[in-house]
């Protein structure tokens, strides 16, 4: 009896041991067990922490999307009207062209370069629809990695949008940086940028933020753009513009395209990545465009053919819903006028929040200079706060922002601007 119980217990233990071993073996992937965890997205991490915070005065200044004065997502009235028109047309859902519908790509090019732009008149622009700004950048860098026959080295401003170097890494393009942000003045280091770019090897690619520089909110002035154009031309460098905020920076789409159009007038053959996430609020639609200026129609045709090859092997065809909205707005005089008013209203709200924030901090008796808040432009502001001050804002005051002190001005409202200013005053006094 005792032996039988012992034998039964041993069988149970053996069975349990085997079950544990089998579970462990099942838990470890045969093929993917070696894969390390990827780094979490900084902005999404801030959002998740913010959402879990029960504090009644919490503020999210890390969000990279426009919010109205109630802190809510905003759908542009012109976009709503375009959606209604598209619905009434009862369109089908067939595949779109690999490069996007021609009326869409033509409208995108006109918005970027101007209706009477020489390359557009001469049809030397290869313009294709892309998956918003990120997709346009990836497509452009992919094209460079396959077909660029000069110095395949990307020169990025320091600092730049965190995704720029990740995209370059993904297509194995080496990177260098040129000075952009001046910590002492909290402004643009034009002398440093020109000095660095004058040392770049001939043929290197220079990434430029067309307007509303992310993350600093600092844009070169017109005469500074002219200096950049001159050194890039003299060094025979290739300019690649990331234009994610046209219209959103100053409220004027032509003014925000000043740098791109100036470079074209100076004879540069540029590459431009466009996004309609910010200026039309089409974040989830993922609609953008990539343009490469080619110099002559024959080269343009060959470049277009190779862009289509890349697109076909990645996602085959672009989505049609977002591009239909953009096309409807950009090709209808009535909707275009309404959209220009919508985008100006968003830009004006952000500008007014900058003024209110600066005024409130100064009114609190803060001894620092805060003119950089209103000197900067666009959605983002480099506050000049250090990591320790940022940590205090998050832990003590429940105001969420990135460690480098960057805030999204769109997250500030008339209801919370006083609280944000008071807390910024406390951590900097």
Automatic annotation (TrEMBL):
GO molecular function per UniProt: L-aspartate:2-oxoglutarate aminotransferase activity; pyridoxal phosphate binding
Names of the cofactor(s): pyridoxal 5'-phosphate
Source taxon at top rank: Eukaryota
Protein's UniProt keywords contain Phosphoprotein: no
GO CC annotation: mitochondrion
Coiled-coil intervals: none
GO biological process, one term: L-aspartate catabolic process
Xref: PROSITE patterns: AA_TRANSFER_CLASS_1
Aminotransferase class I/classII large domain segment(s): 57-422
UniProt-listed Enzyme Commission number(s): 2.6.1.1
Keywords, ordered alphabetically: Aminotransferase, Pyridoxal phosphate, Transferase
Catalytic function, reaction form: L-aspartate + 2-oxoglutarate = oxaloacetate + L-glutamate
The keyword tRNA-binding is annotated on this UniProt entry: no
Subunit field text: Homodimer.
Family classification: Belongs to the class-I pyridoxal-phosphate-dependent aminotransferase family.
Note: In eukaryotes there are cytoplasmic, mitochondrial and chloroplastic isozymes.
Protein name: Aspartate aminotransferase
The organism of origin for this protein: Trichoplusia ni
């Amino acid at each position: 009896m005792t032996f039988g119980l012992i034998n039964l217990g041993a069988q149970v233990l053996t069975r349990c041991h085997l079950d544990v071993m089998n579970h462990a073996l099942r838990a470890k992937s045969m093929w993917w067990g070696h894969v390390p965890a990827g780094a979490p997205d900084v902005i999404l991490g801030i959002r998740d922490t913010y959402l879990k915070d029960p504090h009644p005065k919490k503020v999210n200044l890390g969000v990279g999307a426009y919010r109205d004065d109630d802190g809510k997502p905003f759908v542009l009235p012109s976009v709503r009207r375009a959606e209604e028109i598209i619905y009434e047309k009862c369109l089908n859902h067939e595949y779109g062209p690999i490069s996007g519908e021609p009326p869409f790509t033509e409208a995108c090019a006109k918005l970027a370069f101007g209706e009477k732009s020489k390359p557009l008149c001469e049809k030397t622009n290869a313009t294709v629809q892309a998956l918003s700004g990120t997709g346009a950048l990836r497509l452009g860098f992919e094209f460079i990695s396959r077909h660029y026959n000069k110095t395949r080295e990307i020169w990025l401003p320091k600092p730049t949008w965190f995704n720029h170097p990740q995209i370059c890494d993904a297509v194995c393009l080496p990177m260098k940086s040129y000075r952009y942000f001046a910590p002492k003045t909290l402004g643009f280091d034009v002398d440093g940028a020109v000095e660095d770019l004058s040392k770049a090897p001939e043929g290197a690619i220079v990434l430029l933020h067309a307007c509303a520089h992310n993350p600093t909110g600092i844009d070169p002035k017109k005469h500074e753009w002219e200096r950049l154009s001159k050194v890039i031309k003299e060094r025979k460098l290739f300019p690649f513009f990331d234009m994610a905020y046209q219209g959103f920076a100053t409220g004027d789409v032509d003014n925000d395209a000043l740098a791109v159009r100036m470079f074209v007038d100076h004879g540069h053959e540029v590459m431009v990545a466009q996004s309609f996430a910010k200026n039309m609020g089409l974040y989830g639609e993922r609609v953008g465009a990539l343009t490469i200026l080619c110099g002559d129609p024959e080269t343009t045709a060959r470049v277009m053919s190779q862009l289509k090859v890349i697109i076909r092997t990645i996602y085959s065809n672009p989505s049609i819903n977002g591009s239909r909205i953009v096309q409807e707005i950009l090709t209808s005089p009535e909707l275009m006028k309404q959209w220009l008013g919508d985008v100006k209203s968003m830009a004006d709200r952000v500008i007014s929040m900058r003024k209110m924030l600066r005024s409130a901090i100064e009114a609190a008796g803060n001894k620092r200079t805060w003119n950089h808040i209103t000197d900067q432009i666009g959605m983002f502001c480099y506050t000049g706060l250090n990591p320790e001050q940022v940590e205090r804002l998050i832990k003590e005051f429940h105001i969420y922002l990135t460690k480098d002190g960057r805030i999204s001005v769109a997250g500030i409202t008339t209801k919370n601007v006083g609280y944000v200013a008071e807390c910024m005053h406390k951590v900097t006094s």
